[in-house]
Amino acid sequence: NTVIFLLVFFGIHLSSFAESVIIKHEAGVIDWSLRVIISDGIASTLENQNLAIGRLEAETQAIKLGRKKLLQLVKDVPVIQGKTIGKILKSKKSLQELQTMIDKTLPSQTQYLENRQVSVKYLLPLDGDLSKLVIQNLGKILGDGKSLDSEGEQEYSGIIIDASGFEKFQPSLFPKIFGGKKKEIISPKMIDPKVLITRGMVKYYSSLDEAKKSGFFGLSHMVLNAVKGNSKISTDLFVHQEHAKLLEESGDNLVFEGKIA
C-alpha cells in the first residue's frame, strides 16, 4: 500500500514549472517537487585579458559565488513551523559540517558564455546528507522507528490532503497535519526515520492532475480537505475533524510507511 499525502496549492509565492513546485529566493530556487536546492554563480573575464586565462579565473570566482549563494539558500529552507535550517544548525560543529557539505558539492553545469562570462550551477538534494544533518540537530522530532501492527488489509491505498488555494501555506521538510483541537494526525515522529532521511516526508505537486500523473496513487485513496487556519504563513495544515477521524481509522502503518507525495 502507498500513502499519498498531496499538498495541492497555488499562492503568490509559488509557481509551477514542468510539474514542479518552485520557491524563488534571492540566492536561487528550491524545487520542492524534485526535492533539490538550486543556485548559480556568474563571473566575467576582463576585456583585455587572455581568454583562456580569464575563463579559469572567472570560473574560480563563479564557483566561489555559487557556493556562497547555495549556503545562504540552504540556511533559509523551512524545516518545521517557525524554524529554518539556519535556525536549527547553531553549533560550531553543525555549521562546519554544513560548510564542508557545501564545499564538496561540485557544479552540476558549467557554461562559457559569449559575453566573456562563466556560469556555474549547483544542485543540492534536500534528502540524504542534508536531511540527516538537520535531524541530528533537531531534537525530539522522531519516533522510535517501529512499525505498528495492523490487522487485515488496509482499506485505503493512498491519502490525499488537498490544500488548493492556500496562499499562506509554505512547503517545508517536516510539515504537520492537525485534526480537531490541534491534535496531530500526521507528523515527522510518525514516519519511519529512515524514510525522512533517504527520500523525505513529503513530495509536493502543483496540482491534483500532476499528482495523478506521477503514478504514486493507489486505486483506493481517501481525500482529506484542508481547512483555513490563521492568517500567518504556515508550514502546517488543519483538516476537518471528521476527516481526521477517517485517517485515524485507516491504520497507522499507512502513515508510518511514509510513501508520501
Instruction: Write the element-wise H/E pattern from the N-terminal end onward.
Output: EEEEHEEHHEEHEEEHHEEHH
Low-confidence stretches: 1-5, 8-18
> Roughly what fraction of the amino acids lie in strands?
15-25%
Instruction: State the end-to-end CA separation.
Output: 13 Å
Form type:
elongated
Specify the helix fraction band: 25-40%
Descriptive report:
The chain is α+β, with helices and mostly antiparallel strands and 261 residues long. Helices cover 29% and strands 23% of the residues. It has helices at residues 51-75, 85-88, 92-104, 129-136, 193-198, 208-213, 241-249, 252-256; strands at residues 14-17, 20-25, 28-31, 36-44, 78-80, 83-84, 109-112, 117-125, 158-162, 177-178, 184-186, 221-227, 237-239. The strands form three sheets. A six-stranded antiparallel sheet has the order 1-2-3-4-8-7. A hairpin with a 5-residue loop joins strand 10 (177-178) and strand 11 (184-186).
Any chance you could write out the topology, listing elements then pairs?
Layout (H helix, E strand, L loop, with lengths): L13 E4 L2 E6 L2 E4 L4 E9 L6 H25 L2 E3 L2 E2 H4 L3 H13 L4 E4 L4 E9 L3 H8 L21 E5 L14 E2 L5 E3 L6 H6 L9 H6 L7 E7 L9 E3 L1 H9 L2 H5 L5
Parallel strand pairs: 9-12, 10-13
Antiparallel strand pairs: 1-2, 2-3, 3-4, 4-8, 5-6, 7-8, 10-11, 12-13
How would you summarize what this structure contains?
29% of the residues lie in helices and 23% in strands. It has helices at 51-75, 85-88, 92-104, 129-136, 193-198, 208-213, 241-249, 252-256; strands at 14-17, 20-25, 28-31, 36-44, 78-80, 83-84, 109-112, 117-125, 158-162, 177-178, 184-186, 221-227, 237-239.
